[in-house]
Description:
The structure holds 2 protein chains of 2 kinds.
Chain A: H1 12-22, E1 32-34, H2 37-40, H3 46-57, H4 62-72, H5 76-85, E2 99-100, H6 104-108, E3 129-130, E4 142-144, H7 160-165, H8 170-178, H9 180-190, H10 202-211, E5 217-223, H11 232-239, H12 241-255, E6 257-264, H13 269-284, E7 291-296, H14 306-313, E8 337-341, H15 342-352, E9 359-366, E10 372-377, H16 382-389, E11 394-399, E12 405-407, H17 418-423, E13 432-437, H18 442-456, H19 462-480, H20 486-503, H21 507-511, H22 514-522
Helix pairs in contact in A: 1-3, 1-4, 3-4, 8-12, 9-10, 9-12, 11-12, 11-13, 12-13, 12-15, 18-19, 19-20
Chain B: H1 11-16, E1 19-23, H2 27-30, H3 32-43, E2 47-51, H4 57-60, E3 64-66, H5 73-86, H6 92-98, E4 99-100, H7 102-109, H8 114-121, H9 125-137, E5 141-145, H10 147-150, H11 155-168, E6 178-181, H12 188-193, E7 200-201, E8 205-206, H13 210-219, H14 233-242, E9 247-251, H15 255-258, H16 262-270, E10 274-279, H17 284-287, E11 291-294, E12 304-307, E13 312-316, H18 329-339, H19 349-359, H20 368-373, E14 377-378, E15 406-407, E16 426-431, E17 456-458, H21 460-466, E18 473-477, E19 482-489, E20 497-501, E21 530-536
Helix pairs in contact in B: 5-8, 5-9, 5-11, 8-9
Amino acid sequence: MDIRTTGGPATVDEMAAVDGLLGAPEPSHHHVAYGGRALRSERHLLLPVLHAIQDRVGWVSRGALEYACRRLSIPPAEAYGVVSFYARFALERRAQTVEVCDDIVCQLVGGRGEHGVNCLGQCDRAPATLDEVRPVAARPTLGGEIRLLKRVGVVDPESLDSYRDHGGFAALLRAREMGAQAVIREVGESGLLGRGGAAFPTGRKWESVARASARPHYLVCNGDESEPGTFKDRVLMEHDPFALVEGMAIAAFATGCEKGYIYIRDEYPLARRRVAHSIAQARAAGLLDVEIEVRRGAGAYICGEETALFNSIEGKRGEPRNKPPFPVEVGLFGKPTLVNNVETLFNVIDIVNDEFGDTRIFCVSGHVDRPGVYEVPLGTPLRSVLDMAGAANVQCVLLGGAAGSFLTPAQLDVPLSFEGTRAIGATMGSGAVIVFDETADMKKVLLRIARFFRDESCGQCVPCRVGTKRQEEILERMFQARDGDEHADVMLLGDIAQAMRDASICGLGQTAANAIASGLTQLKVLNG
Amino acid sequence: MFGAGGGTSSYREAEDTDLIILWGSNARETHPIFFHHLLRGVRNGARLIAVDPRRTSSAEWADVWLGIDVGSDIALANAMAREIIHHGLADKQFIARATTGYDEFERCVEQYTLERAEAETGVPAAAIQEVALAYARAERGMICWTLGITEHHNAVDNVVALINLALLTGKVGRYGCGLNPLRGQNNVQGGGDMGAIPARLPGFQDLENPELHEKFARAWGGAQFPHKKGWHLSEMFEAMERGELRSVYIVGENPARSEADQTRAVHLLSGLDHLVVQDIFLTQTAELAHVVLPAAAGWAESEGTVTNSERRVQRVRRALEPPAGARDDIDIICDLARRLGCDWGHPTAEQVWDECRSLSPMHAGMKYSRLEELGGIQWPCPDESHPGTQFLHARLWKDPVEGARAPFHAVEHDPPVDRLTEEFPIRLTTGRRLDSFNTGVQTGGYTSPLRKGEAVLISPEDGERLGIANGERVRASSRRGSVEVDVRYDQSLRPGLAFMTLHFPDQVSTNVLTIDATDPKSGTAEFKASAIRLDKIPVTAAT
């Protein structure tokens, strides 16, 4: 590809960062050069290259970007679009700051920064900061009937031997004995539903990918846990990383995936390091026969959407694709792709070991005594979970994160099951349970949710890009002005919500009004 | 190719082929429409190989770029052929059934070892071998070229060397395979097809064939016209020099700027008894003319047809009235004929075309209504039920072969005429850029953000070695003349290679430097290879 650059030179450091990842450039020869497909096929390395630059020099200068473009054969305009898409990349030199979360949970307990960032997935230790030098690694609060969490805080997350001492990798060996077909059958018969939020039957997904004739097949584990109030995958990856590797190996084996990716959000450096370490250890021990690569997000909630995540791995802006075609047919790099959430893959190990029990992990945060992850059988009343965590004077609960809905004290006996929550018009979503006591300013919470969606909308489709912005503006007007026509504004919000639900490409836009709509009807935030 | 003057494939086939060799062509900039089709092929999985002294923007798209030394194409092609033969990849069945002259060809290329080719071309032997085998092994493969092949003193031999490769591997006459000279204008193909070349009558029919001559003479009411082919452009200039050619009628050409060795060209044109120029612009050549005939623009102000590189004849329609005083070419020519004593009436473009169809078998089936209906038709199209021909020479795959077999021609490497010496150590090659066209007659009136003015492009290494800074003005000299020109460093060039265009004759008369050594067979001048020297301009101290 002919690349036209504006000529900004890259510094020695910046070039070294790029070359460190891609290898030294081919020595230039006056009579022959190679490139073309080989070069263009490296395009997916754009995000890793940008991370390498930023890790080394703190930001992505124009010269560094253009050097990366030349090495990867990407038009600079396109690469600029990618860099500027992701919140974690800096296109300008910036002062060293500590990023403080001021999202729903953290702002309850005083999280306030000059540039408050969206949920960092550390709601159990709010207010959270992103401080890579001193990652918090304390044992999380656990509660309930422990199965998925049984090794958390028990095994040494950096020791393969420790994991094997606790039964690790038995399931993978067993799966290989059973054969791929049998594994898929067992997963299907278990009735496991995906734990990422959409609750799709896992077995059906596996079957479709296994059957797909196009090659190669890819496995993608979605570790881009970004739903505010959700941190279960972080706990699993930080404290039991070998299990994720084992779960992925089983999934890849059963569905015939030649290559696996685990995409972990940038805000989880410890999880990333431990998972990468586990992959290396397992490979060195000869336990892995599929290549698994860790990919690092760059600060974009939308990348939790599976097709946006594919684009991100491919080195593009994390914009969702239209579906169909579905990922099982046309996914990562246009090939059949199995996408599973971290918690889903943990369940697979238990299924193969015949230890499956239908439990689910909930992330309890906010106004509770013991925030943390709680594993309970499906169908457990929400109230029991709140009791375990120590909640008092509950004003309301936000179930399912920013895309979820508010429950009033009268609804706390709802059983935590797909049917139970659906019956009251709620959803378990990603398992986030955010508790607000009587002191919480719910107008502020709703505004923060509106700000979150406006901020995280990828901007690709109009209903969501414009709708999330208007939603925030209208809420601000309603909550601040005393003399506005509140009724008309509520109607308008309803119209916007409908347009976003009907016409957005992906789930972000489709659900961006849910929590706010439920808040306006369930909570006493309106004057009239 | 084998008697037909056109590319064998369709654009569509470039999208479906497995391998494309772009040889002496910077199609990215000079044939952007074709390059779109080519890129679609690349996206569909085709490998792209670029053979070019410069690492052009086309070459940057390529999987492999072979940066040959200027004028060493035959050495490269012959060595590739030898490799293909030695690896048992020659299509022996095809060769035996559909070609002639193979044994002599094999004997000839046997002399071109990889070592020799590396020495002649500068390209490492391993890369030559790799490309040869990739081409031979591809199920479908195409070779496309432009002026990098033809603007040499041995242009026809260069083309023949490429044809040999296609015959050797059976890569012609099949879908997705072929040999394609890319045409630089929308109707270069049509001009040749219509007989605007010395040896041909309309329909690319041989003027010197008595039967064909008779056919035309009869159709034209017993008109008298030469039995022998005329002069091509370079021969015309030689005839002017000898004083044999005293009157010239030029239609839509600007030889005062586009000819090699421009000083000589202008001198000869100025010395004519009578010079008539028919053009849509007052070109530098028109400024020398005794009579200028303002013409209507062919693409917007007149009716007719054009033929593109894939042999597709397409309708052109009048969208605008020409400016006052400018007249349609047909009008001008008929009026001229009338003044000379022949009344050809006032035919419409369609009537002229129908006459052509009645005389040219390859256009016979292309009546206007069909051209509109089918969005153009690719020749040959012998009758009104024929759909046109997507690719040529399918006949070579018939058993037995229909028509004449395709001949191999053994050709030998022959380096450029303008030798590199200590006095003139830099190889200057010329070409075009995306934003401009030829001598700038049609593009000079527009601005482009890409245009930086004329300069001699050299490698940064040469710049440093010669102590010439990027942007410095220097004197560039060849054995024929010298010009002052700015230097610009360009990463696509290697040491010893310089590049200029002909786009800005008013800024820099590049053709003062070029050599008019021409190919005796095609009449094309060796624009691609001159020997030059760059000298710093001495600074005169201010007094």
